[in-house]
Amino acid sequence: MAIPVVLKTVPEHARVWHHVFAAEAPELRLIDWAPGTRFPGIGDFAGWKPPADLAVQMPDLRLVFSVGAGIDHLPLEALPEHVQIVRMVAPDVTRSMVEYVTLGVLALHRDLIPYADETRRGLWNPRVIRTARSTQVGILGLGVLGSAAAAALDGFGFQVRGWARNPRTLDGVTCFAGRAALPGFLSGCNILVCLLPLTPDTRGLLDGDLFRHLPAGAALLNAGRGAHLVEGDLIAALDTGQLGAAMLDVLSEEPPPADHPLLGHPRILVTPHSASASQPDDAARQMIAAVRACRDGQPLLNRVDRSRGF
């Protein structure tokens, strides 16, 4: 009898999942999520933004697969301790994020945001071209995505520095670790990139106090989560000149209302949470591997350590 797996995703992705499972894992059977339905006897769930009562609707839950690099959309507090959590890690996700971070850093480095605003208003205001080797780019978060982005930026000749909660060593990167080291890390960042996971410790980290530790006129790129940023503090820092420009791929409300103040600010470029995304066929194959490993008692790749939060 085929092992059932519950899937919660958008219809266009679900079609790909069903095709991959049918072709490559005939011993498994996908069941599409239906709100309010109970799934007794089924232990495996894959999807994005499950409901807070997932463990109630799936009383025999044993494995949750997060379709995405982050886990902040999961109701962790409501999941029993025995439930294993696996997050999506894929080369395409990493490559896409590296492309986005490189695009954003180069745009901020070469003043494309103020140029776009000024030329729309008929102004011609060339600036001094700064060299990459004279510019320090700091990356908050040195996990898979942050480490790959740091390596790419190092290849352009930027002075790259990185901060993480725990000590890290990366070639070509000056690394800082722990809260006590954060002000010293920030003081040398002409461009700050946030790729942190969202945890209680990192929620609201990008605020006025943090911005005051950056050099005057520094730029911000946030491709982590919207809740990392105190949006009013960003506007205040831009208006005073403490920050020169910002590029944001994530907002606290998505999609934002048309009159959201970040959307019309001349020093901010917003993209619609499009920096990177998992491919449904890749996600389906990773879920198949996770279910098989769980069934066979083998170690799970990309298993989340709940004691660390990511």
Structure, described:
With 310 residues, this protein is of the alpha/beta class. It has a seven-stranded parallel sheet. It contains nine helices and twelve strands. It is elongated. Helix content is 30%, strand content 18%. The model has no long low-confidence stretch (mean pLDDT 94).
- N-to-C CA distance: 35 Å
Order of helices and strands: EHEEHEEHHEHEEHEHEHEEH
How are the strands of the biggest sheet laid out side by side? 8-7-6-9-10-11-12
From the helix content, strand content and strand pairing, which structural class follows? alpha/beta
Helix content: 25-40%
- Major pleated sheet: 7 strands, parallel
Would you identify the regions where 5 or more consecutive residues have pLDDT less than 50?
none
Strand composition percent: 15-25%
Number of strands: 12
Mean pLDDT: 94
The geometry reads as elongated
Question: How many H/I helices?
Answer: 9
**Radius of gyration, taken over Cα atoms and rounded to an integer in Å:** 21 Å
